[in-house]
Amino acid sequence: MVKFGPPRINRAWRHAVAVFVVLAIHQPASAQLAPNTAPEAAAGLSAKTLALAKQKMVVAAHPLAVDAGLEMLNAGGSAVDAAIAVQLVLNLVEPQSSGLGGGAFLLHWNTGRRQLLSYDGRETAPAAATPERFLKPDGTALPFRAAMLGAGSVGVPGVLDMLERAHRAHGKLPWSRLFDPAIALADAGFAVSPRLNALLASEAGGASAFDATSRAYFFDADGTPWPVGHILKNPALALTLRALASGGAAAFYQGPIAAGIVQAVATPGPTPGGMTLDDLGAYAARERPPICTSYRRYRICGMGPPSSAALTIGATLALLEPFDLGVAPMTPRALHLIAEAEKLTFADRDRFIADPDVVAVPSGMLDPAYLNDRRRSIDAARSMPKAEAGSPPGVPQRRSGLDATVERAGTSHVSIIDADGNAVAMTTTIEQAFGAHLMTGGFLLNNELTDFSARPLDSQGRPVANAVAPSKRPRSSMAPTFIFGPDNQLQAVLGSAGGSAIILHVVKTIVGILDWHLDAQAAIDLPTFGSRNGPFEIEKKLAGELIGLQLALYGQTVVTSDAPSGLHVIIRRPDGMLEGGADPRREGVARGN
Ligand code: GLY
C-alpha cells in the first residue's frame, strides 16, 4: 500500500542527495561552467528545504513570482487568480522561460465540484506556414539555432487567452487586480538573478544573438549582460500590463500590442515569420479532455495532445505497473526497468502524437491489452536496442513517418493549491531560453514552432505527424500533472521544465513519491535519469559513477546529462498539511501558510 506522509521519508537517501547537492554547489565555478555545459545548466545548483503549510501553497521558479501568487491567495483569490499573478511576474523576472509571448497548459481541479479540467494555450503556426518552413532550398533541415533565431519560429502566443478563459471559469478576484504585483515590479525594477545573468552570459553569439530591443534591455552599451543584482526596470512591459489589466486578452490579440508582435516577427532573418493580425485575432485557447491512468492504486492525470505528456507518462507507468521497483530509491534494476518502459513509449510518442485538431492521434495508446503486449519487449535483465513504434488501436492506416523534432530544455512550471483545496498545475514556455530572441511590448516572443519536426517527410518519404501546417499546434512535452489517491482526493500537484526530458523528470518524481515514498523535496532532488529511446541519460552533477557502471551491466549505454529539470511539487499529507518542494537546479521556492 502506498502511503503519503511520515514515516515514508527515506532519511538516509535524503541526506545522501543533500550532500551531493551541497558538494556540487561548492565546486569551483570553473567546474560548473565547463565550456560545453548546456546554457540551461549554467547557473548550477542550490539546495532547497521542504516547505510546509496548513492550507495554501505556491511553488514556482522565482521567489517574487511565488510571493505574487501568495498575495492573491491571501487576499481570498483562487488558485487560478494566483497562477495568473505568478505568470505575469515570471514574465518579468524569469523572462528567459515563459511569458505573454508564449504558450502554456493548465490543469485545474475544483475540489467541491470534483471537476478536473485542462486548458490548452499552445501557440499556433501562422495561417501562411507550410511544411517546408524549416528546410533549406536544397531540402535539408536548417540547423536548429538558425531556425530558432529566425522569425519563422514564432507561433501565435496562447498564454493570455488561456488565462483569461480560466479566470472567467475559476477566478474570484477582479482580473485587473492580478496585474498589480507585476506592474509594481516592472516599474520599480527587480534584481537580475544569477540564473538570468548566467544564461545571458553563456548565450552563443552574446548580445548579437538578440534583436535590438532585447539587446538594449538585457545588456549594457558594451554588450555585457547586466550583472547579478542589477535593478532592471521594464517600462515597456509595465505599459503592456496596464493595457491588458484594463482591456483583457482582446487588448493583446488586437490593437497596438498585436501590431507590435506582427512587426517584430516581420524582422528579416533566416526564415520568414509571416504572422498577421488575422492570425492573432483568430487565436483561441481550448479546453481539452484531461487524460488519466492508474498506477499503484493512484490516478495520474495530465495534459493530452497536443502535449505528448499524459499519454507518454501514463503508458510508461502502465508498463511499469507489474514490476516491483523496490523501496530503496534508484536501484540499478529500477532505473533499467523505467528506461526500458520509456524507450517503448517515446517510440510511440515520436511517431503518433501531434495536434489532435489536425492529426488523428491513435485512440488506443493507453489500451491495456496493447500495453500488455508492448511490455513483453521489456527484459528485466537486458537493455533493448532502440525501440520501434507499435500499432496501438486506432492507428491510422497510413502510418506516419519517423519524427525529427529537436526539443531543448526551456520552460517553467507552477504548482498551486488554494484555501478551498482547488489546484492549478501550469507549465508555461517560450521554448528555448529567451525564445526567438525578439522582443516587443517588454516581453520576448517564443520560438515554439521549432517544436515541430523540421522535416515534413521521413527518409522513406512518409509524412511526419508533427510536421508544420497552417494554424497547427506544435507537439509539446509539457506535463502539468495531478495525482489523486484511491479516495479520489487530490494528493499531489507537479510538473517540470526541461523540453522533452520533462516526461522523464515527471516519471522520476511520480515513482519517487509513490514507489520510494519520498517527500516532495527528496523526490525532486533525485538525480534526473531516463531514456528518450536513445541512451540512458543520467544527471552529471548528482549521480555517482557507480550507477552508470551498474547500468552498463544491463547493457544500457549511459551518458551523463547537464540539462536541468525545473520540478515544482506540492503534496497533501494524510493530516491535511501541504508540503512543497522546489528544484535545486533552478531558483524557485515553495511557500505557503
Ligand atoms: N517547448 C517545450 C514543450 O512544449 O515541451
Written description of the protein model:
There is one protein chain. By secondary structure, this protein is an alpha+beta fold. It has a domain at 38-288 and 408-501 and 563-592: Glutamine Phosphoribosylpyrophosphate, subunit 1, domain 1 (4-Layer Sandwich), CATH 3.60.20. The chain has 19 helices and 21 strands. The protein has helices at residues 11-25, 29-32, 63-74, 79-93, 144-149, 159-170, 180-188, 194-201, 212-218, 235-247, 250-253, 255-265, 277-282, 309-320, 332-352, 368-375, 502-514, 520-525, 545-552; strands spanning 51-53, 57-60, 103-110, 115-121, 190-191, 231-232, 286-288, 291-295, 298-302, 412-417, 423-429, 439-440, 443-444, 481-484, 490-494, 529-530, 536-539, 558-561, 568-572, 578-582, 589-592. Strands 1-20-19-15-14-9-8 form a 7-stranded antiparallel sheet. A 7-stranded antiparallel sheet has the order 7-4-3-11-10-2-21, with helices on one face. A 3-stranded mixed sheet has the order 16-17-18. A hairpin with a 5-residue loop joins strand 14 (481-484) and strand 15. Helix 14 (309-320) packs across helix 17 (502-514). It is globular and about 60 Å long. Residues 1-42 have low confidence and may be disordered. The site of glycine (GLY) has 11 residues, from loops.
CATH topology call of the domain at 38-288 and 408-501 and 563-592: Glutamine Phosphoribosylpyrophosphate, subunit 1, domain 1
Portion of residues in beta strands equals 15-25%
Mean pLDDT: 90
Instruction: Work out the number of β strands.
Output: 21
User: What would CATH call the architecture of the domain at 38-288 and 408-501 and 563-592?
Assistant: 4-Layer Sandwich
Radius of gyration: 22 Å
Q: Which class of secondary structure composition applies to the elements?
A: alpha+beta
> Within the largest sheet, what's the order of strands?
1-20-19-15-14-9-8
Shape descriptor: globular
End-to-end Cα distance, whole Å, is 30 Å
Largest sheet: 7 strands, antiparallel
The residue ranges in which pLDDT falls below 50 over 5 or more consecutive positions are 1-42
Q: Which compounds are bound in this model?
A: glycine
- Measured as a percent range, the helix fraction is 25-40%
Number of helices: 19
Mind telling me the CATH class of the domain at 38-288 and 408-501 and 563-592? Alpha Beta
Going by CATH, the homologous superfamily of the domain at 38-288 and 408-501 and 563-592 would be: Gamma-glutamyltranspeptidase, small (S) subunit
